[in-house]
Amino acid sequence: MKFRPILALPAATLILLLGGCGKSSTTLGEGGSVVSGSAGPAGASNASRELVKCSAPVATLALIENPNGYSYSSSYQLPSSPVPLVRLLAQQSGCFRVVDRAAGLKATVREQELKESGVLRRQGNTVSGGKGYEAQYSLTPSLTFSEQDAGRQIGGILQAIPYLNKLVGAAEQVKLKQAQAALLLTDNETTEQVAASTGSVEVADLGVGGALVGKLGGAAGAGWSNSNEGKVIAAAFMDAHNQLVVQVRELQAKELPPAVATRKGG
What we know:
Curli_assmbl/transp-comp_CsgG, alpha/beta, about 270 residues, CsgG/HfaB family protein, six-stranded mixed beta sheet, 6 helices, globular, signal
């Protein structure tokens, strides 16, 4: 996915964009980010049309937090970790069966402890030890986000043009937002890094209206659709994921555990 920086747009388009700053409208189903929909027994529901998929899963997968953290300012009020976002992408793509090594795992352990302590019923209890699925692969994300002030350059140009110099104030609020994401895939049996990918995106933020040049439609979860910064980061991870799938498709499938029971499959 590639977005043109605003400096490369035709002058007429630029004028229209700047002239629309400050106006607002509401459109259901729009906004959000490129990561959209859900994943589960029904498959990838309402996923982005740009999501690259596999015909069948090759292994079970756990998402691992990057020990070095993620490079973006807390002032953007984004979620502390992009792992839930990447987990949704991985499950929607159908390339992996995703196992939880975060809050879901802690909840499972807590239920087993409650059973062993006698708090929970024993007869008919389906939560027991020794049934968890192993993670055959681990996926570690990394992220760098940056913001550049492009509006001063545009404002300087408009200042010298009659009639357009009135748009200088709006132009100076334009910023270029850039994100680069990487995904590292490790075989937990051999410890070998079997695949790696990067993704990137650049968009122009018009500032006043909070609009992005380039459509990042859809409805994303996990708080990544609430700000322009989050939308840019989501797009970068989508790009990195799609690059990774090209490599994953070449991997020989490992022996998978039994599938989750569904109404159709029993």
